[in-house]
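Continued from yesterday's entry.
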Amino acid sequence: MENASETEVARRSPGIEEALLILIERLALRGVVSADEAEGMLKVIAKSCDASAARASNHFQLIDQLRRLRRDDGSSAIGAQSFDPS
């Protein structure tokens, strides 16, 4: 029974990982998270294995393009609400 469970996990993992990659990318594109934050999350996923690194590479490129469009301001999160009380 454990073998079937491991097989199921191995089958679903790439799909879940891709969904996370897309979510991170879209949050960055909408300005909810900064390019720096998105890149940090992508690095965590990419470190898990070579296949994950390969899947994340296109997302890294897109985040890099986004950073350049924002004039190299990787900390900018234009769509996020400010919680500054002033």
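--- second protein ---
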Amino acid sequence: MCFELPIVFNFPLFADISDPMPENPQPDSPEPPKLDSPEPDIQGPRSASFFAELKRRKVYRVAVAYAVVAWLIIQIASNTFSSFGIPDWVFRFVVIGLILCFPVAVILAWAFDITRDGVKLTSPVNGKATKAKGTSNKKSWLSVSLAAAAPTLIFGGLATYFYLGADDAADSGLGADKLYYIGSLAVLPIQVISGDDEDAAFAVGLHEELLTQLSGMDPLSVASRTSTLKYRDQSKGIREIGKELGVEYVVEGSLQLVGSQWRLTLQLIETNSDRHLQARSYDRDRQSDNVLLLQKQIAWEAAIDTYIHLKEENPPKGMRGERYGAAISEMKDELEELEVRFWADANRTLGEEALSKARKIIAASPDDSDIHVKYLTILGQLPHLFVSHEGWRAEMMLAIDHALRLSPEHFDTYVHSGGFYLIAEHRPNKALPLLQKGLKLYEENGDFSHNWPYYHLSSAMHLTGKSAAALEVLKRVPIEPEFGQMLYWEGPYELTRRFEEGMAFMRGQLDKAIEVGDAKAQLDIAYTIARFESYWSGSNQPIESFYENEIENLLLSHAFEAELLFILGDYAGYLREAALIDPSSDPYASNAGDSMINRAIALRESGNEQLAYSYMQNTIRGMESNPFIFELIPGTAYASIGVLNAMIGNEQAARDAIEKSEASLDPSRDLPLYYMANGILAFAYSELGEVEKACEKLDIMLSGPTGSCTGRLMLDFEDSELGRTPQFEAVIRKHVDQLRDPEILDTYFVE
């Protein structure tokens, strides 16, 4: 019997001759060392042995692989986490985790091997540097790969978790009901640094308007005005205010009077860190005619600056950001459909629906520049609001500010802004630079779909005394003009008294109208040619011939015929046709043929003075009840009231109106209107019997670009007392160059 002793080392302590031979004996195996002999140090000194052991255990390889992969993870995380909706603190957690896990990876690399038989402790070095049975001659690359992949798997999974869970977390928070949520903020009362009670009242209104503007931006949650008023006179810190109101940001500011301007200074502050994110100043003229509009303009500019900065801090991201983008895109498609229908029908209801849809998009995406331009474009074209609607004018001014602020390089921004100031505000000097830039951008864009930038600019030019330049602009139109747009050519030719050139152009257009069979265009263009011919010759014969040729034309409406009869002096015929005008169906009803002044003149000339005076008084009352007209065209409005009062016999009222007209004349605002007002004043002075002043005004009118010219005045005053005075003849002869044949004066002025 033999006893089997335990194995203490990797060789038996004793061997019994009765033991069986091993199955696979090793030939020529060296005799094992004696138990009491020391193990030789085959690795050299202790320090060299340690680094050699690191190398043997492949710790260097694992450390390098870990460092490379960790660096890649940090780079990827820094560039992608925000796009996937992963909070900033997660990125910091990843970096710290990678650093802390590095020694763990090194220790694991030292202690373990991954072998064919599984994970095992790394065997120690024996005297001959042999390895345990079952291990490979060198460490498997699988261990290195696993060490490198570990941080990727851990932190990749963490990133995925936060990406998928970010929306659920957000949806359960304060902005759960919003397509896109930036954060919460409070607007503290604005402090007045210098000024009086007016400045304090302005600051209160500005605070309320700023709250209104920010509250209208859906991605923001704004604390109520009531909750912020208590901080007007308190000196609490921003952190404390943020905690009390439960907001992430605070807007605070001050108002001071600097010279003749208000200066609003605002700061945007993050409450948890008391960090200033933004500071801006806004200067405005204190002497404003519309304080409420001024407050809206300043408040919106401050609100959009705040919104844009906060959006940059918290952009739409993750799955929620994708849903937000899809919702905005869907609303834009709906707006596009409404726009197409609106432009096709010019329908009031469709226009209001389109504006409503645009407002919803702006509320959801306040800084969307394209939608602001669309809003301006649609608003400017609503027929029922055009020119006289005060609320519309204020809204247009705000829309212009918004579009210019957010889309300063879009040609439509300038074309529609300039068109508003040109037509609705009658301020061609302000419109001119806007329209010039609009046309420049339009031509640079190269997508020529219409001629309107050219038409608006040419109109502004001839209204500012640049009629020759206006014609040059019209010659650049990229699209063949429509017949209904001939008015844009007619004005510059008439204002520059280039009648011969204008008639040649119109005859070419008439040939085109005949070629395509457009009967209405033929009628309109033929009438323009007749008028030009009449003004150039100083004779009504061309208009008489036109009327005779078109008398049977079914397109010659009652309003059109009334205008012709008034020009020709057939007042009874004029009154007959004017009584038959149907404004709802007559395309020429807006012409002068149906004006109350013309009816009053026709009644007086026909001998019905009592009814004529009644019409004149009604006209005066109607004009005086509309203050907008005195804001828009004060010179001509007061001059017209002066003429009517003079015709009625109200001399003092006439002189008062004339004085107001003289005081409000401003050639720098609208040059043709300035000359036109002088022409109307000439009629007023004529009615008052002041021949010298009347002729002085006529001389001024003929010296500038107006629709009135020498030939037209000869027709207007042919049978009047003024037309037979030497002063009138002197004025006409002074401007004889505006006539085709000066010799006509020899037969016109006869004893």
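The longest strand covers residues 275-285. Residues 141-171 form the longest helix (31 residues). Will compare against the first tomorrow.
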